[in-house]
Input
Amino acid sequence: MMVGLNQNLVKIETSKAFTPLERQVIGMMHHLVYGEGDSFYKKWMHSANHSLGAFCSGGTIANITALWIARNRLLKAEGDFKGVAKEGLFRAMKYYGYEGLAILVSERGHYSLGKAADILGIGREFLVPVKTDANNKVQSAEMRRISRELNDKNIKVMAIVGVAGTTETGNVDPLNDLADLAAELGCHFHVDAAWGGATLLSDKYRHLLKGIERADSVTIDAHKQMYVPMGAGMVVFKHPSSAHAIEHHAEYILRKGSKDLGSQTLEGSRLVWQCWCMLACR
Ligand SMILES: *Cc1c(COP(=O)(O)O)cnc(C)c1O
Output
């Protein structure tokens, strides 16, 4: 039936039933990470101009989406500068007076972050790998030291990425320490829980990810430890208005004020497969 209907989640007219269902599933995942109360979800889950997250084809797109938001929020419109989304990185650096941007992550960070640094114009050399301890957890003191070094060179730390569980070893970074550092630096805090995010479903083990609720954005892959068919990536945002930084409209398809999911996602046409599978699993 689903193949026959061939619905497209990019906009509401091509997916009348699944647009609210996907918002519902994203709301469930947001609750799993951030545990907000009923009134929060009543207010934001189905709000046309807000987004608690997005489904996407995988953790790669989820990570890119999160860091795209981080970049655009940092280099926002101000005074006569129209923002990086409109004027590009070159003018943004001139306007804000930075020599460059950097993203800090454990040396066990996933390679998809390198792609993000590349396509967002940050440069792969500025995705700075930070040493881990004997347990493969990032050393937050070392991260703080590197951030100071970068700051002295006038390179702005755009985001800190915590890994909750590394793909190779399964270890979780000290998320609370990283959240503290991100607050100190005034930068975006992203948690890549593509592989380990499913741990939040376990009452026994969810404490391993403590601090994740302080992240501005979190990546979770349902096609990994949630055993949903490929490709079911997700990114959730702490703040319902974060995705305004990447919002786009097109008269013929993504009208302002509509519930079109595609106005706040990197991907365009999208199938309804993932959110259907997650509901079915539940
Ligand atoms: C798998 C994985 C990704 C990338 O996800 P894809 O679904 O393959 O795009 C990103 N980060 C981590 C930690 C992963 O394990």
In short: Residues 58-60, 63, 110, 112, 163, 167, 192, 194-195, 221, 233 surround pyridoxal-5'-phosphate (CB under 6 Å).
